[in-house]
Design a protein that fits this description.
binds zinc ion
Amino acid sequence: MKLIYCSNCHDVVRLMENRRFCECKNIWGRYVDNLYAEISEQAIPIGFENSSFYNAIKNRPKEGMGIKFNAFSIPEKCKTITVVKDKDSIPPEEAWLFENKEALESVKRGLDDAAAGRLSKFEESLEEFDELYKDLS
Ligand SMILES: [Zn+2]
């Protein structure tokens, strides 16, 4: 499994499908698929050797010495990792939208509706109110 290390806040974050940031938001990374990942410029990728890691967890001793597992730094040149330049990166404060498919779809629909001249529920209710007001006056 791939993880990233932040030399600023010393956080270690496991990569997943959605972009994940370190505690100080200086670095991020995500899996593009089961093997390939993309990370920000300052992120230092590390790997856990899955079999030895799961073995260490599965056979966790009650006391005494813990079971070692293999972890390694991933070389700067690695064909399964793409480094995304900071200038091409979505800022952390906007990232939530791109990581929440429902919210993103909702925003896209809203933009489509606005482009097509369709009214929002609020605008519709304002029109109804105007009609009602005309009838009463
Ligand atoms: Zn950090």
